Structure formats: structure tokens, C-alpha cells
Amino acid sequence: MAIPANLELAAHGERPRSSLTRLYLEHERLAIGGGTLAAVLLLWEALGRSGLVDPLFISFPTQVAQAGWQLSHGRDFWNDVEVSASEFILGYGAALALAIPLGLAVGLSKRLQYMIGPFVDTLNAVPRVTLLPLIIIWCGIGIWSKVVVVFLGAAIPILINTQSGVKTSEARFIRVARSFSASRLKIFSSIILPGTVPFIFTGLKYGAGRALLGVVVGELYASTAGLGHMIADAGNTFQTDVVFFGVLVFMATGLIVVALLDAVERRFEKWRPRPR
Amino acid sequence: MTDAANGRRNGMSSTAPMRAANDELQMPVALRWYLVHERVILGTLVVMLFLIGWEGLERGWWADMLRPLLGASAERLQLKPIFISSPTLIAAAAFRMFFVTGEIWRDLAWSGAGYVLGLGLAIAVGIPLGLAGGWYRRFSYAVEPFLSALNATPQVAFLPLIVVWVGTGLGQRVLIIFLLAVLPLAINAHAAVRTTDPRLVKVASSLGASDWRLLRTIILPSAVPFLLAGLRLAIGRGMIGVVVGEIYGSAAGVGAMINQAGARFQTDKVFVGVLTIIAAGVILVEIVQRIERRVDVWRAPA
Fold first, then answer.
1. Which of A102, A128, A139, A216 could link A152 by a cystine bridge, Cβ 3.0 to 4.6 Å?
2. Cβ separation B160–A234 shorter than 8 A
């Protein structure tokens, strides 16, 4: 234990091993991770089924699976999914469409940054979900209040990352391009924009997390439909299995969205200008 | 000027800083003063315009001004105070709540207690968890699935469950703040151990230093900047926890105050609450950033 393998000292202790051990060592990460996960699920199932802890409080995995199966055969659940998905897509889409161009503009123009800076900094300092009671007054408890929360949540990280991407463009490249009398448009499209792309994707990743948060909080707080509404309702009526299933759906959505954006971010990672 | 002309004749434009320096010499004093303070001037101007525009919407200045032009439809430019309130109404409400009735102090104390406890719990659990995960590879394999699942979930979705488990009291807020704040701390502590200079560790352990000694003298000092960065993130996440935990079902606290004022359309009070939370967040982050700058000095050169 004294010498952790991650510091690359383990190689010195390599000895010939049986093939079974080698197989285990190659997939150790998967084995340990999967093993712990299975153990926790089993323990949970045992606690819930034996009645040691009231299933009303913690439910158990098979009950959650059953609840999920039943829900996915009803119309209400799919309606909730549709509502939540449209809130996410509309709000996030609007954030994309506005925050990226605005971020580019703010990054390019010092004066615009001076003008918009105070507002962006203020909004960045506050969890945007704090504005929810105000947004409810303005937009009601329907889908639009959630779209606005999602938009605000996602727009700020996207804007800030895009802006800092523009700011970190390689000054040398710009100088070279300028001395070869490249037009401003050419400099923007061939130097600044490509260097900004990785930053934009980083912003998109943060923004997606914030957008999902907005959907959940908005629907928990005041709504008539949506997955957050379903969770809140089920919690109030002690249908713990339904709550867990709803949380799982959000978890799966988060995992998928993060994995997708991670893949895209990695793809463009080599476009990132190196800091100097 | 002659420089620039020469440059152009040679088929090359002169470099930007040079041109700027030339221009600056020929500028009148007032303009130069403006350019030096441009950031403050432009920022203040826009914020003032925004505030005046807002105030005018509530007081009907713009409706009065445009009535000759637009006729009756100008009335749309006057909005009800319950809808948008106004800067002066908000200032008055803030003065009342802070200094006359003093009602907000009780809410602040209540929120602060939950925040400190939740963040403290997150630090007490998150940092050791992250350090252990960074040091013991197998331990990190075991907890990884749970942490990445939790990381991908919007943690506030656990709120209804937490309410089922511990009710809507202090425990609910402590738990939701903990859930939100623990991940950045654990992830950064993990990264801190993994990026410790392996040569230092190798030297120390070949000289027979114990695990504890290594942790205390090599890993922790080099981890401090990471831990502070994690703390800065955790502070922001914790803020979300305070607000969401309180608006979802709590009797006291700034978030609860916002919620109740919103339900009664007391828009000015809502704004006071939001501004209070903004101020608290800015102050906390500023404190951590000060500490970070201090610590940066003794961060080992790469």
C-alpha cells in the first residue's frame, strides 16, 4: 500500500502470474467498480425486502425497476418526458443561439465587454435558480418559466467560456496574419474562431449541467407537468420507488449528455491554443 | 505618422501598438482621460441607463413621454410594481428589512447555519475521500461509479427523497448542500494527489517516510491550490443548495423568504433576497480568491 501503482512504481514489482490473475489485473477497474456497485445494490435490495428499513423510505432496486416498467407503459410518464425535454431543448437552444455570438462579440470588442460585463458578472455570481420566484411572476408556472430558467442557467457559462476563448487567441498568429495584411474577417475566421471552438464546447458542457439543473428545480418548484413534477408528486405521496426511477432518468440523461459533449470536446481539444 | 506612411510604402502595415502610441500623443487630454478610465465610465453609464430605464417603466415616465406619439398604446410602457418593482422600491424595502424591522437577519442566520454545516460536512467527507481515491488506486475504482453517476445527475433531483428521509428542517438543507458541494471537493482533491510530483514521493519513500509523513509533508502542501479551487466551486454549488433547499420547503431562511414574498407578489422583497444572495456569494468567492492568490506564491514552480 505504501507505494501506489499510479506513480508508476508498480512495474518494478512485476512477477510472472497465472493467466487468471492477469485477466483480473487487466480489467481490475471494471471488476472492482462493478463488484462494489453490485454489492451496494444487493445490500439495498436485502435491506428493503427484509423490512429492516421501511421500503417506504428507501424502496429497493427491483421495486424501482417494476415502477419504471409500469410507468413506461402509461401515457402520463411520456407526457412528462416530452414536457421536460421541450423545456431543455428550447432553453438550451436559445442559450446556444444567443450566448455564442454574444460571447464572440464581447471577446472581440473591449467596449462591448465594458458595457455588458457588470450584468454578466452579477448573473454569474448568483445561482440563476434564485430568480425562479421572479420568473414565475413574469411567465407563470407553465413551460415558459422553465425555458427561461434553463436559458439563463446555460447562457452564462457558454458566454463566459466563449469570451475567454476569444481572449486567449494566439497573439503571435494574429500579428503574423496582420503583417501579411489579412482582413479582419479572415483573421476572425481562420485564427480566432478555430481557437475558440474548444472553449465553446467546454462552455456547452457546463451549460448542459446547469440547464438540467434548471429543468429539475423549475419543475420541483412550480409546474403542472414534467419529470421534476412527477418526482415531487411521488415524494409527497411517499411513492419512493417512483422518485428513484425519476432520479435515475435524470441521471441517465446527465450521463448521456455529458458523454456526448465530452466526446465532442475531446475531438476539438487539439484546436486549443497552448498557453504560454 | 511618417512611420506609418513608410510602412505602407514598403507594403507592410506598422504594428498596432506603435500606431496606438503615435495616436495617443496627439490626443486631447480629456479624451486620454476617458480612454484610461473607459472601463469604469462605460460600465457605470450602462448600469445607470439600465436602472433609469427600469425605474421609468414602473413610474410611467416612458408612457408619459411617448403618449403624444403612440396614443393609448403607450400605456403598455407602464408596468405594475408587483410585476417588476423598481430600483427605488427595492432600495426602500432593503433599508426596511435590514435596519427598521431587521427581519432579514433572522433569515440570514438560519440560511448561514445550514450553509456552514453543509459545506463543513462536504469538506470533512469530500477532501479525505478525494485524497484516498488519489492515493489508493483500488479504492478509487470502487467509488468511481458512484461519484460519476452522482456527478452527472442534477443533484437537486434528490430533494424529494431527502424530504422523505429527514423532513424539511435543517437536516434537509445540510444534506442537499452537502450533495451539491462534495463533488468538486472530492474531484479536486483526487486530481491534487495525482499531479503530485512523483519524484518527490519516490525520494521520500525510498528514504523510508511513512504514508502519513508523505501525506503531511509532500502531498498536502502541493494539494492546497487544488483544494482551494475546489472550495471555490463548492461555495457556488452550496449557494444553489441553500436557495433550492429553502424554496422547496422550508419555513425560514433567505430562500424561504424569497419564496413567500414571491407567492404574495412582494416583488421588491424578492429582489432584496436575490441581491443579498448575490452579495454573499461575491464576498465568499472574493475571500477564497484572496487566499488563493496568497497561496499561489508558494506553489512550486512547474
1. A128
2. yes
